[in-house]
Write a structure and sequence with these properties.
The structure holds 2 protein chains of 2 kinds. Chain A has no helices and 11 strands. By secondary structure, chain A is mostly beta strands. Classes of the chains: A mainly beta, B mainly beta.
């Protein structure tokens, strides 16, 4: 299995621009998680899906952030408009129902200037 | 609220010595406790986990112990090697959303040759 796939791996954008991060979970996994990692705040859960349905979005920082999962093999995290404080590494992870084991993708390093 | 505390935040050991990282959790209903290792610039990777019906689990040089009464669990690395240098995260499941992991703040382990 290819594991969790994320794209792009690096993104540099200017403040005010729209950013879209993409994730393909491990085939057959029922859960998909979006995390943000910074030195100051550590690893934060933003939102997670079960069978393509958002279950908990309480970690989404504000309305500028949105996430979708149109099908079992694809999810997006969008930031619009982006701000310098959004600079972080964004990880996607997936897991199989009942196992709890989350497998992380390689991450997207976002820099907003 | 749900919380996982992790100590110490940094740990330096000599190659060959043992390293111990401790975590406490607040929710007595938590039932799954994984440990992740994150090397610099890489994704978090699951290295060992334990479920609430087990008190100890070992895999070669790493072991995890769980004390449900005290609500704490620990990672033990014996015969440390320079390649063990990384940031280690503990986590616990949330009783509110059992598929969600609450992560600790991480321990930066440095193993000096």
């Amino acid at each position: 299995d290819a594991g969790v796939i994320q794209s792009p791996r690096h993104e540099v954008t200017e403040m005010g621009q729209e950013v879209t991060l993409r994730c393909k979970p491990i085939s057959g996994h029922d859960y998909l998680f979006w995390y943000r990692q910074t030195m100051m705040r550590g690893l934060e859960l933003l939102i997670y899906f079960n069978n393509n349905v958002p279950i908990d979005d309480s970690g989404m920082p504000e309305d500028r952030f949105s996430a979708k999962m149109p099908n079992a093999s694809f999810s997006t995290l969008k930031i619009q408009p982006s701000e310098p404080r959004d600079s972080a590494v964004y990880f996607c992870a997936s897991s199989l129902a009942g196992s709890y084991e989350q497998y992380f993708g390689p991450g997207t390093r976002l820099t907003v200037t | 609220g749900e919380n996982v505390e992790q100590h110490p935040s940094t740990l330096s050991v000599q190659e060959g010595d043992s390293a111990v990282i401790k975590c406490t959790y607040s929710d007595s209903a938590s039932n799954y406790f994984p440990w992740y290792k994150q090397e610099l610039g890489k994704r978090p990777q699951l290295i060992i986990d334990i479920r609430s019906n087990v008190g100890e689990k070992k895999d070669q040089r790493i072991a995890v112990t769980l004390n449900k009464t005290a609500k704490h669990f620990s990672l033990h690395i014996t015969e440390t090697q320079p390649e063990d240098s990384a940031v280690y995260f503990c986590a616990a499941t949330s009783s509110y959303n059992t598929d969600k992991l609450i992560f600790g703040t991480g321990t930066r382990l440095q193993v000096f040759p």
